[in-house]
Design a protein that fits this description.
The protein is α/β, with parallel strands linked by helices. The chain contains 16 helices and ten strands. It has three domains: about 180 residues, Beta Polymerase, domain 2 (2-Layer Sandwich); about 170 residues, Rossmann fold (3-Layer(aba) Sandwich); about 80 residues, no CATH class. Helix 3 packs across helix 4. It starts with a strand and ends with a helix. About 5% of the residues have low confidence.
Amino acid sequence: MVLLSLTASHRELDLDALERLSTGSGSVGRVVVGSCGPVQGSVVISTCNRFELYLDVDAPVHGDAVRHATRHVAALVAASSGVTQDVAADSFTVRTGPEVTEHLFTVAAGLDSMVVGEREIAGQVKRALVDARADGTTSKTLELLFQTASRTSKRVGTQTELGAAGRSVVALGLDLAGRDLLHTRGAGDDGSWRGVRVVLIGTGSYAGASVAALRARGCDDVRVYSRSGRAEAFAEGHGVEPARDLVAALADADLVVSCSGARGRRGPGVAADRRAEASLEYVLDTAAVVRSRERAAAAAGDEPEPRPLVVLDLALHRDVDPRVADVEGVLLYDLGTLKAHAPATATDVVDRARRIVVGAAADFEETRLGRAADAAVVALFDDAEERVRQEVDAAVERLADELAARGETPDESDVDAVARDVRKRVHSALHAQIVAVRADALARARAEEAAVVARAEQLVTDAEHAVER
């Protein structure tokens, strides 16, 4: 088996390109397992700043199966997202073998995040594996890979100060919004967010994290809105209020946190023209904001102007129409803004975290590649047992001849003593053989991995040339 990953993230692409690429790609992992023979398993990580596909490929050393899988995935992503196949192939960073392991562990630890050290990604990695199980696409190797990634992330969190500051995309967004909120709204004198009225759009993991972060800041006036009808259940489970009329809720709000990602979702079988139409539908459009501002102005009465509105859009597939920023009295922060304001992290803290990640990845690869070595060691033990049996038979036969010359026969204790001596002698020589055989098997396994990895750089180029032909 060869591990293969295709990654598109904020580090390689701008957020607009990433949004186009990942639109509708949630089903790719399930489809590729069902339609590409060499692919034995897949797990998809899709977050606000990355789309990654991890594959367990039954690949020969020459890498044809890996090349085929990569081309196939590029075609599927192109079909689901509306980009061309060559654009899809060119957008992915392809990794194989040990590179896959170290990259996933790096991602799970928050070292590859827009906000370095954010802890939300750890939960997203866990949910990716849960979703793969539900889809029936995971494999034994991917199960072990993702579970080890989660354990490594926990080690980074407990053994370094990387996650101690509570860094996250949500926290960064609220920090930016807070600069504008606290001196223009009825916040508490102690700097808390008491008196800040918030409308939350969405009911997913980021919505839950947003409620927790708002409460930590002292905000106790949160209403949740969902186009999917989940607002009531979310509100009951999180101790907030549901909002049935979005425009009315906005008219009375100081801050909107939108993280539904609903604009990027679509079911299978949606026609291309309907996909294009759906891509224009924002969860929060300019018309709704304008109407809410008119209501706010009417409610303000003789006041010079209604209270300003801060909108925080945390969705990759923009929940909020960017033109909302042009509405008077509205400030819009999106992921592009957050990326530009992401704080730096102390180098020594990052270095400690990376050492944990690199060490864990090396241990995982040693274990994974060691399976071939273990098979060789088992074969060596089997051979040794056969040698013991043959030598014991021969030694007992010689002993019987010697005793027969004196008119005696060997008893059970004589046979046991011979067997112990032979087994001790054979096994004393076995340790050095085990070390040598295991080292040779590991070297061959690494060489096979290296042969595939060496050709990985050709995969994307080959896919592009195939499209051109």
